[in-house]
Fold this protein.
Amino acid sequence: MAGASAGAGEADASTPTVLLPTAAAGLPSDAGPARAGDPPPTGRIEGVFWALSAPSTDALCRACRSAGGTVQGALTVADWITRAAVTRTPLPVLAAATVPVNCRPHVVPPLAADACVCGSAAATVGGTLAADTPVGAAVRAVTTAVRAAVPRQPADWLWRLLHAPASLPAATLMDSSVGVSPVAPAYGGGALVVGDVLFFRVGGGDAGGGGGDDGPRAHV
Amino acid sequence: MVHAHTFDGRLHVACNATVPGVAAAWATASAAALHAAVAAVADGSVGTLGELWAVAAAAAEAAGATEKPVAC
């Protein structure tokens, strides 16, 4: 998950982009293994976007629930398998991922049910992926691992983040709620999720990621 | 790096894959492979991880994965 801090936008709506600092762009898991002496990558990160249809999304949710897992677990498994497949790495493989977690139960005072802070904290999970492992079992294993990891994560930093002054750089986060955001206290004027873009109001000026704003932007 | 969230009843996924120095073709292929894999989980057309691997590999190849790999 990338913290998103950026300058003026020049991307069109169909190809959202986020300008990230070099350090964020150079994560080994995304750029491939770094070699000694390689200069750090610089430039723009562009995203590739897709979506499931509403019926497929519903089917995915039901499949995950019937397996005793979550959509997050399914995405994690799918991501692992994709990484293996595109590199033509045969199974079994040992994989790991840092995934966002739902921190609502760990925040005081509690956040409303429509305020989602998944992505504001992370848990690291891993496992061995074997060819004959049922997909549902793999999804359930990831879900179980995340749930086991969350209580070990210090949650108080999230509380501090949510009430931090507006000068705080844009955080690493994902917000899946529409219209309500728990980061509002941190940004005074509030934040608004419109489509897949989280709009901040920072320092009295509007900042968004969906159009031609001149302020900083954040894509979630 | 994958961002995923739901709204309007749909799962939306953003693959921030085209980091500097990595071919855009791989970003597209990786995203296509992930899309195919998630769709396969959703429709129940795969039973095992091996089958899921095959779906993702086929999608990546169809999308033109021909260069140095990178996962999204």
